[in-house]
UniProtKB/TrEMBL annotation:
The protein's name: Polysaccharide deacetylase family protein
PROSITE patterns per the UniProt record, alphabetical: NODB (PS51677)
Location in the cell: Secreted
InterPro entries noted in UniProt: Glyco_hydro/deAcase_b/a-brl, NODB_dom, Polysacch_Deacetylase
Alphabetic keyword roster: Signal
CDD domains registered for this protein in UniProt: CE4_NodB_like_5s_6s
Domain NodB homology, first and last residues per copy: 63-274
Natural source organism: Streptomyces halobius
Repressor in keyword set: no
PANTHER family: POLY-BETA-1,6-N-ACETYL-D-GLUCOSAMINE N-DEACETYLASE, PTHR34216
Amino acid sequence: MSAVPVFLYHSVSDDPAAWIAPYAVTPRVFAEQLDRIADAGLTVVPLRRLVDAMRGGPPLPARCAVLTFDDGFADFYSAVTPLLTDRSLPATVFVTTGAVPAPDGRPEGSLLPPARMLSWRQIATLDALGFDIGGHSATHAQLDTLPARQAWHEIVDNKRQLEDALGHRVHAFAYPHGYSSAAVRRAVQKAGWTSGCAIRNAFSAVTDEPLRIARLLVRADTSPERFTRWTLGMGAPAAPLPESLQTKGWRLYRRARARLGHPVDGPPGPGAMP
C-alpha cells in the first residue's frame, strides 16, 4: 500500500511564541513545502477521505498527502488560509477549546502557554470556508496520564463546545502531544469521534489505525531535503506500527510524575515516538 504523509504543523509565523518556536515554520517555508508537495505529484486530500479509505470506503488517489494543524493558532487564519485557498487545498485544524479567547479576550482555561489563538468567529469562518475543524481536548492535557473520568470530560467537553459553536457534528480528534493509550482511544471512540491523530513520525496508509493515525511532525529544523524525502515516500517507517517499549516506558514515567504532582510539561516532543 502507498505511504500517505499526514503532515502535522503547529504555528506558521515569522514571530511565533517562544515556547512553540521549535515546532513553528515561517509562511515562506510553509509555501515552499506546499510547492514541494505539488512538485512530487501528491494530491492533498481531506483527512476524512483517508479515514473513509481506512474503513473500506472509496480508494485514495495513487499518491496523496494530508495537512493537519494542532492547537488552533491564530496564524492559521492570517497566514495559512490564504496560501491554502490560493491552491484549493484542504486541511484539518485541531482546536484546544480552552485556549480559544473568551469575549473579553482572555482564554477560557488551557494548559497551553500564552499565544495568539483562533477566536470563535475565526473558527466559524474557517468552517464556512470548508476547512475541517477537529478537536484537540478541552485544556491540552496529557490524556493518558489522567484519571478516566477527567480524560472523558476533556474529550467530551471539547466535542460539545465545538459542535455548539459550529452547529453541526465534528468528527476528527488529535491527541495533545500525540499521547494516547488504549483506554484513551476507547474513550475517544465512545464519545463519537470517528478518528484520532497521533504523531509517531511515520507515514500513514489505508492499513493504518483510524484511532491512531500516524503523522509526520514538521518542525522549525525540518530540512528541505528531509521534507522532500517525505513527499517521495521515503525517510520514515510506515504504519501500522506496534507501540514501542520506549513509548510505554515514557508513559509510565509521565503517569508517575503526574501522580506526584510534578507532571512533565512542554510542547510536543516525546509524543512523536512510535
